[in-house]
Amino acid sequence: MEQIKINCWEYKKCGRQVGGDKVSELGVCPAATEIIVDGINCGKNGGRACWAVTGTYCKGEIQGSFAQKVINCLNCDFYKIVWKEEQENDYKSPKEILQIIRGK
User: Fold this and answer.
1) Residue 100 resides in a domain
2) Which of 24, 30, 45, 75 lies at a 20 to 30 A Cα distance from 16?
3) What pLDDT is attached to residue 104?
4) What DSSP letter does each residue of the chain carry, written as one string?
5) What is the distance between the alpha carbons of residues 58 and 95, in angstroms, rounded to a whole number?
6) pLDDT tens readout for residues 35-75
7) What whole-number distance in Å separates Cα of residue 28 and Cα of residue 35?
8) Number of domains composing the chain
9) How many angstroms separate the CA atoms of 69 and 53, rounded?
């Protein structure tokens, strides 16, 4: 496995990872604990697949499913960084990640 790269909670400095400073206020982000996509796009848990994880916290509010938040995610600086970094590697598209999460 490749070296783990920066995860969304590190990039966004949201404090919602396990042990983060905002956990008591906002809870742990599902991206930080979604183990089924661990290692995808060289991230820890859902840290580099956050756009496919339901219930992440972005733009000051809890986001819904991928279908509900896709526009925000596709315009997100972090999403663009991951896409650019991983397009030469084994980049997993949102569709592929959703299939993994859904077990298909």
Assistant:
1) no
2) 75
3) 60
4) -PPP---HHHHHT---STT-TTHHHH---HHHH-GGGTTGGG-STTTT-GGGSTT-EETTEE---HHHHHHHHHT-HHHHHHHHHHTTTTPPPHHHHHHHHTT-
5) 20
6) 999 999 999 999 999 999 998 988 778 888 888 888 889 89
7) 14
8) 1
9) 10
Distance separating alpha carbons of residues 21 and 23, to the nearest angstrom: 6
Residue 101 falls inside a structural domain: no
Residue 49 belongs to some domain of the structure = yes
Point out which residues pair with 34 in neighbouring strands.
none
Nearest to 101 by CA among 66, 68, 56: 66
> Letter for the amino acid at 27?
G
103 belongs to a structural domain? no
pLDDT of residue 2 exceeding 70, the answer is: no
Q: Domain of 31?
A: 8-89
Quote the pTM value: 0.84
The predicted structure's pLDDT at residue 44: 95
Query: Measured between alpha carbons, how far is 43 from 100 in angstroms, rounded to an integer?
Result: 15
Q: Which two tokens stand for residue 43?
A: 């991230």
